[in-house]
Description:
The strands form 5 sheets. Strands 1-8-5-4-9-3-2-10-11 form a 9-stranded mixed sheet. It has a 7-stranded antiparallel sheet with strand order 18-20-29-23-27-26-19, covered by helices on one side. The radius of gyration is 28 Å and the shape is globular. Helices cover 26% and strands 27% of the residues. It is α+β, with helices and mostly antiparallel strands. The chain has 3 domains: 15-257, Heat Shock Protein 90, CATH 3.30.565; 313-481, no CATH class; 508-644, Sandwich (Jelly Rolls).
Amino acid sequence: MVSIFKNINKTQRGNWYVPVSEQMNVNGVNDANQKIFQKNSPLKSMLRENIQNSLDAKDDPSKSVEIEIELDSIKSNDFPEKETFIKYVKKIKNSKRWKNDSDVKRLVSNIMEAFSKNEMSVLRFSDYNTKGATGATKYKPTNSNPWNLLTSTNNATGNSSKSGSGGSFGVGKNASKVASDINTVFYMTRSDESKNNYQLGSATLASYIEDNNISGNIYTFAAQEDKKPLEENVLKLSSGYSRDTNGTDVFIIAFNGVDDLKENATKYILSEFLVSIFLGKLSVSILIDKEKYIINKDNLYNIVEEITSNNDETSKNINYYFSALNEGVKYNLSKELCETFDFEPTDGSIYLVERPGDADPSTFLMTRETGMTIFTLKRFVSSAKVSGVFVASGKLSVLLRRMEDVTHTQWNPEYFRKSDDDDFNVSPKQLYSKLIAYIHGVVKDIISQEKGDSVFDSLMNDFIYIPEDTGDDSNKDNDESEIKNHISNVKIKNVGVNKPSTKTKKNKKVVVLGTNSGSNNDNKTKTSAKKQYKKDSKTTWTEIYPNEEFLIPDKEKMNYIFTSSSSLKKSLLIATIVGETKKEVPTLIEATLDGGKLRHSSDSKSVLIYIDDPIEKNTQPKISMKFKEGTNLGLEVRVLKGVNK
């Protein structure tokens, strides 16, 4: 530490500290660990991350985790060491580096405005029946424990790679600061280690530059400059709140979601933790002006019924998912999945309900052990309407957790994180593909009992992957135009949920038209393409039916993987847009087979991809397609076998 960064007016109650930037980096306010939570409502992000942390720290497994959210306040003059905090803010303001930085200027303005008022709003988030953030009692800066991970560590997690805990990257704590107009929060905890409360404040601001020294951008209110927590309450809340049992509190200073807090919090809690509440794992109380509003398993039916009257998409989906949980048919994992991956049948459950006569799209909610919503499988067009909920448990929950992105809103095999002591010997892509296949098989099972297999074929063409709902229905059209990494047209045969169909399909001859395309810019290449087209025109193309088919996203590409039912000397893929996304033929930029480039063309309806190399029986070739339109396409893919005339 350089002396200029030691604090002024230090009292026994702690003070604000900021370290010198060891790398001499100048840090602004656009913290990447906070930006990832700003695409959604700050309140929604804060609730998701904090409730997830609380569920991970459950104490008595036979009881629910209890959350209390209260809209409180403090007097501005009672802000801990207010003058020191403002002196730092003024140093930031006076640093020439930020003279033209609108983001830093905006934050400084927000802080000065907040302190100009008599009171600041404070959102208190408190959990009970949790172990508390252990480690505060025997604090050392180098320790890896829940307290340090919560208050002063980024990009690291204390959750074991073999656990089903919610967190995976250690950045979720930053969601709370996004909900603060001044990027400032305080933490308090109590655990079995001590019957005292331990507290710490943290503000993400900007570096300031003074006498050629550069500060960091994380300002900490602590007992001493190594971020040792204070063994007392330092916030004088208007309610007089103080913790007297084990658990953790997060206090968001200058909270920016005061308006419609009860309504918005209820909607977000149900959209993100409906399953947790239904299964009795979570209970939430919202306090505004000392009036308490409770959301738990006992009154869930009435609350869902109440918000459904809003008639927006999020509220209607909450009602559909609740109906699936409360009234639907329950399925456990199939025998095939259990045998393939050494699962127990109870490692996954599906709750499925049919909605006859309903005009809204079918949807499927995907969750893990804690019950937090990860994403939805959603379809747009079908004569059969269903809603379902999938809950992963045990080993399956652990594996899926390791496929999640930083915001816990998708499962992607490409993200799978291995561990040095890993004893999971599975292929992430195979696991994910077969899991989606299993879910579609269950849907087929419940529909075919009443409707017949033909309806299932129509339904499966329209399932696509949708990232989490932002809760902002006004931007729905725009959000859906930017959907990335979706699943579309996953057609599976013999997934082990139903008896194999007694129907047989005859191979169908298909007339193929189209002009070879690609990067044919010179005459020599064009001449070669014409010769190849003549060869293709002398080929009889017959549609075949692979044993299994999967269409899986991979960043900017869509991967079509199939298990060949026969040996293919030459073959052809025809990709056609289906569902409400149906429009003109998409522009295929590139197609590859296991990394090698493939010829491609198009006709008035479809994209044609030619595979000139042989494919052996019962192998799984992967064809990657990169479209100009990105991955936001609902595709139906057919495989054709070529035979020379």
